Write the structure tokens for this entry.
Amino acid sequence: GSTLIYATYVGGSSNEYPHSLVVDDDMNLIILGSTFSTNYPRTPNAYQRKLVGNSDIVVTKLNPSGRMLIGSTFLGGSDRDGLNEGAIIKFFYADNFRGDVIADSQGYVYAAMHTRSANFPTAGTPLQPLNAGKQDGVVFKLNPDFSNLEWSTFLGGSEDDALYSIDFDSKGDIYLSGGTRSKDLKGTGNTANPTYRGGAADGFIAIISKDGDQILRSTYWGGN
């Protein structure tokens, strides 16, 4: 912590909020966040070059020196994306700025966030192609330069849901955790807590397939 290796601004003319950072195997820095800027920096071949709604998710990759954009893209629909605005699951300070990003050994990037858009971009064979109601979690995979959305899916129920954390196991299956007000989450049968536990909100843990096309299991986690 005694030497500044690099420092740089990343953003446009409105507000940006970085939610999560990860470094890939090539020492590139990947930033997952949200933006209100129409002129947020993006690369020429970005999957989505324009801000669609009031706010969009952004994913940006900087080279190891922080001097060059390797990839940068918007991702969102016509409502607010990348902001956790559920009335109860936004409980503590900065709960509206939560999400997570990881990269695999080939440089593909996976992220977990949330959206209020009915038309958030989906791709591949999504396990949940439509927003189930209000705010849903979203999970997606981008290719290494963010020019292609490999797959993308909603994940949630009929009330407010948000995803905060993502990881994968040795098989590539994806583990997710978040908060929910929904009593109808998919894949909860024959798990530790197959039904909503009570109280204002529950946590939940889910496992989905590496292609984003199946929910393997999901469980509520919480008290009354």
User: Anything to note?
Assistant: DSSP finds no helices and twelve strands in the chain. The mean pLDDT is 96.
